[in-house]
Specification:
The protein is of the alpha+beta class and about 475 residues long. It is about 30% helix and about 15% strand. The protein is built from ten helices and 16 strands. The protein has a six-stranded mixed beta sheet with strand order 1-5-6-4-3-2, with helices on one face. A two-stranded antiparallel sheet has the order 7-10.
Length: about 475
């Protein structure tokens, strides 16, 4: 299940539309109740202790719609790693909560205690801060360096996505991300408290940023970069103390000085502009793991493993010179998962020789194992568009035909050629051989070919009968 694209709820819903099911937690932080929605397993309703103020209402509305304008790679990352708010819950005119996805089963595990095995519980990232022996004592897999690097890569990929979209998380800590002990993947929770540009003050003990010493300065993506650097050091070394002191152990374990250098600059910088960007830390971790990928907006760690080698658009339609009207080239982009397909241009079908397929087909991320869709990708929504339909997985394109300032992807025209007709044989013997071959393969010969053969058989039988009569007369006469 994808944590944003598969939401069964609209972007705004009345509280009565999400009936209460199994309770998950009560009076935890800013929430008074978190429960699994009845008849919708895997989806949680989080109700606040007090209605949201105007600033929170604005930020939540922008967060709910933001994935509609993201690249496909960013959407993949959102769907895999984030409990993104998909629906705002209202009680009359008050915004009282949100709907979000529950963490997948891989982020839960039973723990062994003195009384025996406990029920499966969420695995916070806190387990990576513990020695491997401690994990083994409770029945968890011992986290090796590769698992730790995978977790850090995903955390930094999320941080890079936040930085590029100016999302301020603020409360980075061990408890606000879950960990999959088998794959090393992470799942970040409490996304609904994020701000756009900045947010209200929030901080866990032991995570103080030296460049944000008091509450007079609101947290920004720059303060997030510091806390992610601290989280990176602690996840890789399992040392909770001073992250600068732990850098020596990190450099020994990874045998890579570039990551340690970037982390040291982030942790010791005296000016915000001297801190490396999260994308730089992400690239350094990917070099260590060997998972090279661009950290730009169009390709993040949300890209599918084993990227396909077909990454372009191919225009389809009538051949040049066939007498068909040339269709207008449709603008298209990476389609958000589950979005409503935009109407394609139906022009270019005039004349008997015109093709009935026009437009452009997206071949990005296509392979033999996954054949391309039969219809072209739709135009994306513009940055200010508002989704419509049953849930966050549907979007409406402003103007109906994609009039936003989205560049048209390059198209590759098909090679125009006419198939050569097969040579026609004029030899009667060749025709007879072909007919005999067809007859030997079990096919029924034509009626015109069957008549001469039947006449010859009749003549042969008549001659045999005359010969038999002559022989019989001779023998009887001799006797």
């Amino acid at each position: 299940m994808r944590s944003w694209s598969d939401s069964p709820f609209p972007s705004r819903e009345e509280l009565s539309g999400v009936p209460e099911g199994k309770s998950i937690s009560q009076d935890n932080g800013e929430s008074r109740l978190v429960y699994e929605i009845k008849d919708n397993p895997g989806w949680l309703a989080k109700l606040y202790k007090r209605p949201a103020d105007a600033g929170r209402i604005s930020d939540l509305q922008r967060l709910v719609y933001l994935p509609t304008v993201m690249s496909q790679a960013d959407q993949d990352l959102v769907d895999r790693c984030l409990a993104w708010p998909t629906t705002r819950l209202y009680d009359g005119s008050d915004l009282v909560g949100v709907v979000m996805a529950k963490a997948p089963d891989g982020f839960y595990a039973p723990l062994k205690a003195l009384s025996g095995w406990q029920d499966p519980a969420p695995l916070p990232l806190d387990w990576l801060m513990k020695p491997a022996d401690k994990c083994a004592q409770v029945g968890l897999r011992r986290p090796d360096l590769d698992l730790r690097l995978r977790a850090v890569e995903e955390l930094l990929a999320v941080g890079d996505l936040f930085a590029r979209h100016d999302i301020v998380y603020g409360d980075w800590s061990y408890r606000n991300a879950l960990w999959n002990q088998h794959t090393g993947e992470v799942f970040v929770i409490d996304m609904d408290s994020c701000g756009i540009g900045s947010r209200e003050w929030v901080e866990s003990p032991g995570w103080a940023d030296p460049l944000f010493p008091d509450r007079s300065r609101r947290p920004t993506v720059a303060s997030d970069s510091y806390k992610l650097a601290v989280l990176t050091v602690r996840c890789l070394t399992a040392q909770r103390q001073d992250p600068v002191d732990a850098l020596h152990a990190l450099e020994r374990s990874t045998r890579d000085a570039s990551l340690g250098g970037l982390l040291r600059r982030t942790l010791t910088a005296t000016r915000l502009e001297d801190r490396p960007k999260c994308a730089e830390l992400l690239e350094a971790v990917r070099r260590i793991r060997g998972t090279t990928a661009s950290a730009g907006p169009s390709a993040t760690s949300g890209s599918r493993a084993g990227a396909d080698n077909v990454t372009t658009w191919v225009k389809v339609g009538p051949r040049a010179g066939a007498g068909a009207a040339r269709p207008a080239e449709a603008t298209a982009s990476a389609r958000p998962s589950g979005t409503t397909r935009a109407a394609s241009d139906a022009s270019g079908t005039e004349g008997a020789a015109a093709s009935n397929v026009t437009g452009s087909v997206n071949l990005r991320n296509r392979s033999a194992a996954r054949p391309p869709a039969s219809a072209p990708e739709p135009s994306p929504s513009s940055a200010g568009s508002v989704r419509s339909g049953p849930g966050p997985g549907s979007a409406s394109a402003a103007g109906g035909s994609g009039t936003g300032a989205t560049p048209t992807p390059g198209s590759v025209p098909p090679t125009s050629h006419t198939p050569r007709p097969a040579a026609r044989s004029t030899s009667r013997s060749a025709a007879r051989r072909a007919a005999m071959a067809r007859g030997s393969s079990g096919r029924t010969a034509p009626a015109a070919a069957r008549r001469p053969r039947r006449h010859a058989v009749t003549v042969m039988l008549f001659c045999a009968l005359i010969a038999a009569l002559c022989v019989a007369r001779y023998v009887l006469g001799w006797i």
